[in-house]
Amino acid sequence: MDAESQKNHLKAYGITYWTLNKELKVKWLLNYRGGSFLLPDSDNIQRECQIRGISFEIISNSKAESILEEISSPSKNMEAVVLEKAPKIAVYTPNGKQPWDDAVTMVLQYAEIPYETIYDEEVLNDGLLLFDWLHLHHEDFTGQFGKFYAQYRASSWYIQEKKEAEKLAEKLGYNKVSEEKLAVALKIRDYVIGGGFMFAMCSATDSFDIALSAEGVDICEPMFDGDGSDAGYQNKIDYNKTFAFTNYILERSPTVYEFSSIDMTRKRMISKTADYFSLMEFSAKWDPVPTMLCQNHTALLKGFMGQTTSFTRDEIKSNVLVMGETKSNGEAKYIHGIKGKGFFTFYGGHDPEDYQHRVGDSKTELDLHPTSPGYRLILNNVLFPAARKKKQKT
Question: What does pTM read for this prediction?
Fold first, then answer.
């Protein structure tokens, strides 16, 4: 899985998942040649690699033992983690969304990793209990319809999506979309606390935490829910209820395309050509979880924007791990934490290979980006639940 030898990093995750689905175990060799996978040898696996265009090497048992012995050396920042079972994957997304609207859905399809889509009704009926891993599509859990009001309130798609959301909320027994979305967020919170794995990108990250912190508080203006917001609602926000963020200031204006001070999009002072973020280095033997989530063939990745591009460093809770950052800009791009018995990862931005994705833009063709390091971070999270866990030291 290093830069020189692998011609399709993304599909390599797919063949690893396929192997696990055959009830075979795989070793993930952390920090060894870009985070390589040690698969059992068989004609079927070799053939499948060839069909999918994945680079692989056949090694002898003695060579495998030699590699594992090198990895186990205390002087090497490497570890071999056993992957045991293919996780069952859910993507939280509304009906009608195209796969290219969401980077995770797109890369799962490209890597040929199976998943199911679920939405509010299934979540509220405890459908998450059937899954090991949940991705949150670029959702607005605050009931403000993505803060698209200023630019798109007269657009047919915005009007239609607002009507559909209000109709669904009413069907599920809620007076407002914000109340229904809060109920969904609380179910997702309970899923993670109970041992689930949650991954979110773009606006699903900060809007999820904001919804949790505003439980019982009306932060929506009349054009969103038909009545005024609570007076002085900022002082009623409870940061103790959030997963990752604290001490943020909500954006009160309905015409500003922003939820809060968490996001760096409007504050960042960096050009496209200089926009990169770096991955942190962790101890593979002592901290295998963040090491797994940061496996890549480069430690410096191209930045990319979204409604929530990145996170204000000072507004991240102290118990949350920053795994990717643009230090010169004071922003975190990729963060991870523990909640109850479960785990969550937040990744800022919309599409790792589309710098400034806009509504209506053409889709990204992953055939043109088979070695994308930005997309690798997503797939690290997909395989993470398959790992036999060791106690984390950090």
Answer: 0.95
Phi, psi of 352, rounded to the nearest 5 degrees = -60, -20
Position 205: which residue type?
A: T
pLDDT in tens, 184-237: 999 999 999 999 999 999 999 999 999 999 999 999 999 999 999 999 999 999
Where do the DSSP E strands lie in the chain? Answer: 26-30, 36-38, 79-83, 89-92, 116-118, 133-136, 197-201, 276-279, 300-302, 311-312, 321-326, 331-339, 342-347
CB 128 within 8 A of CB 101: no
pLDDT of the residue at 137? 80
Domain of residue 234, residue span: 89-386
Q: In the numeric block, which tokens belong to residue 158?
A: 């915005």
Same domain for 256 and 147, yes or no, is: yes
**Residue 3 falls within a domain, yes or no?**
no
- The pLDDT value recorded for residue 295 is 98
What's the confidence (pLDDT) of residue 362?
76
DSSP character at residue 33: T
Is 292 domain-assigned? yes
d(CA 61, CA 64): 5
Q: What tens digit of pLDDT does each residue of 296-339 get?
A: 999 999 999 999 999 999 999 999 999 999 998 999 999 999 99
Does 112 lie in the same domain as 72? no
Rg (CA), the chain: 21
b/e burial code for range 229-266 (CB count within 10 A of at least 16 → b) = beeeeeeebeeeebbbbbebebbeebeebbbbbbbbbe
| Residues 130, 33 within the same domain | no
pLDDT (0 to 100) of residue 394: 46
